[in-house]
Amino acid sequence: MATLTFSHTLANGNTADADQVMANFNNVKTLVETTKLDVVNLSNPNSLLKLDGKLEGQLASGGNQIIRRDQTPAGVILVPVLATVAFESGSDGDVRVKFEVTDDTAQVITGGVTAAVGTLAPTTSFAIESIAAGSAVTFKVTETSSAGTADDITVSLWCKTEHME
Known about the structure:
This protein has 165 residues and is mainly beta. It has two helices and eight strands, in the order ααββββββββ.
């Protein structure tokens, strides 16, 4: 982390010389210019935005349902980091749920992510690098086995945020 050091120390009760004030100002200016304190670097890269979706109840065999559809904020680009899907129980030992995310133009998760009963299935494999500001984002779940139902499905998409200038 860069530190700010002033060329001159100014004290209360003493007259400040304009050259000393300007030198201190230039110290601040140089720090700002050399450490790239711009919009991209000031956004917190360690904070993540979590988008959740939940389907209470059952999803029948072969069925699919959209459980969330949102518009991304204007001026904010979402960068997918992690997607997860889990469901509480199923009526058949081979029940599987596939989680897909799309934006206006493409699949967000490469091939979707599929979970079995009682497991949390994560993925970090994304088909696109970012979701454009103002895009419609849709969460869809599909029960992919030939028989059975899935109960209480929870999906999450974790994203970094980038603010546009």
